[in-house]
Amino acid sequence: MGLQQLKTKIEGAVEDLATLEVASFTGNQINLDGVDPGDVFDTIKSGLTSSTLVGYSRFEVEGDAMNYVNSDLGEDKKYLIDGHNSMVEGAQKSRKDFFEFVLKVLGVDVD
């Protein structure tokens, strides 16, 4: 990857920092055998038609937030909500780490 391509990717990712969305679903197993790694997301997305939304969280850079948790899952499926919460925490950490990386590349002291 050339320097210009890296710059373009970073610029696009910085625009994506404005919002953070995490959606978790449960449903039938989706067969990923033989699926090209670059096509995994699209394959999973196409299989969501028969899935149930577990949780959806959205965070805006200016502080607005929205959270939805499916209350019809029952106590025996609580682990799915815990999994969604773990995904949200991981996504927030990844976003923070990337933001700090961009600031460092730009020469901005984050300490």
Describe the structure.
The chain is α+β, with helices and mostly antiparallel strands. It has one domain. The protein is 44% helix and 20% strand. The chain has 3 helices and 3 strands. It has helices at residues 3-16, 40-46, 78-105, and strands at residues 19-26, 52-60, 65-69. A 3-stranded antiparallel sheet has the order 1-2-3, covered by helices on one side. A hairpin with a 4-residue loop joins strand 2 and strand 3 (65-69). The longest helix is centred in the C-terminal third of the chain and has 28 residues, at 78-105. The protein is flat. It starts with a helix and ends in a 6-residue tail after the last helix. The mean pLDDT is 86.
Which short descriptors sum up this protein?
3 helices, about 110 residues, alpha+beta, 3 strands, flat, about 20% strand, about 45% helix
What's the gist of this structure?
With 111 residues, this protein is an alpha+beta fold. The protein has three helices and three strands, in the order H-E-H-E-E-H. The protein is flat.
Q: Which helices and strands occur, and which strands form pairs?
A:
Elements: H1 3-16, E1 19-26, H2 40-46, E2 52-60, E3 65-69, H3 78-105
Antiparallel strand pairs: 1-2, 2-3
